[in-house]
User: Fold this.
Amino acid sequence: DSMLAGFILSVPGELGMARGNGLDPAWSAVNHDFHGMPAIFIQVGSLEVLRVDVDLLARRCAEAHVPCTVQVWKHAIHDFQLGADLLPDARAAVGDMAHFIYRITDPDNLKAGTP
Assistant:
């Protein structure tokens, strides 16, 4: 997205994520085993560069039968939730996160085995 310049995207490789002539796949969460993971909640901006990774992550969760909720926020920038003091959408996003956390940690839901 417009918040992440091309140079910034090259920094992880420069800091040691590279192995040989490419990036080490172990650095990306999408390349790991998701079986047995708890429910996952993801928020992403519709135009941000990480959107492709979010789609892949959700697909990997589905393959592992892990409940995964993805919210795509129209025109939101990366980490837009940090603006919750000023932006109504960011406030709503933080509220959705809180609801998700409450739902999966509610003792009644934990006893019933439902996320």
Observations:
- The mean pLDDT is 84.
- The helical segments are 6-17, 51-63, 88-105, 107-112.
- DSSP finds four helices and four strands in the chain.
- The first strand starts at residue 18 and ends at 19.
